[in-house]
Amino acid sequence: MKFSTILFCFLCLSITVAAQDDLLKELEKSQAPEVEYIEQTFKGTRLVNGQSVETKGQGELEFIFAHRFGPMNGGLYELFGLDQAYVRLGLEYGVTDRLGFGFGRNSVDKTMDAYGRLKVLRQSKGAKVMPVTITAFGQAAIKMSPRKEDDPTGTLTTVNRMSYTAQLLIARKFNSKLSLQLMPTMIHRNRVDQTIEDNDQFAIGVGGRLKVSRSVALTTEYYYRLNTFETNPNKDVLGFGIDIETGGHVFQLVLTNTRGLTERAWLTETTGDFFDGDIHLGFNITRTFQLAERK
Q: What's the pLDDT tens digit per position in 14-67?
């Protein structure tokens, strides 16, 4: 009798365990696997001179202070470029985590610029695999210099002073240390010297970041202009940087062959040759403030 009772209890327990296992398997099948988005492909919205795929978070306001000195080959008389200074001050606001707008003022040609960026695709793994992050960037800029009264030809109208930039920023974060980015770019300027260049300038940029410690990374970028005339005296832009993260802001130390601080200036009007010593020391400082509560 006891043996029969024990056998009956064992059978009931086995059936219960089997039923629980089947239920757990069904629950696991019904639960969709999660999507894991890759964050912080780059630390900031700037790579060196140009943009990165990063956008500001919702309700975040970024203050941007960019500075370039004169060329180092100016010698001791110019204190190796430190006597000269070119500055851009700007603000960028994150409307959502993927959409932001900004504007700024550049002392080179006294240029005003306004722009927007939209993160179209995000690199992800898990249930949804996306190998890259893609951000669309668009900018309009106007040169305020020279003044109308200083223009003897009278051709520098407001329309002629305008330029426009369109970019696709395509990046992949390979691991916690290495990220690479591709930047197809088009710049349209309403007024140019058509004996040496077109109104539309096409370029392809490549860049990357190598993280060397928890708060320090090395960055670089190079833009190759595609449709240049042989008579065009300007040069392709090359830049190297060191990113240092210190709490709420990022400090970027820069070496580049351009003094320009907007896309039109550094991509189409760079006169210095990096390998001839026309190297500008500079820095970018960004500080982020949370103005609105994230939803």
A: 444 344 555 445 545 555 568 888 888 998 899 999 999 999 999 999 999 999
Looking at the chain, the whole-number percentage of residues with pLDDT higher than 90 is 57
Whether 193 is covered by a domain: the verdict is yes
- State whether the Cα torsion 99-160-67-222 is positive or negative: positive
Tokens, residue 28: 């696991």
Domain for residue 129, yes or no?
yes
Task: Tell me if 13 is assigned to some domain.
Answer: no
Determine, yes or no, domain membership for 3: no
CATH of the domain at 222: 2.40.160.40
pLDDT tens sequence across 232-272: 999 999 999 999 988 767 889 999 999 889 999 999 999 98
Give the chain's domain count: 1
Count of CB atoms situated within 10 Å of the CB of 289:
12
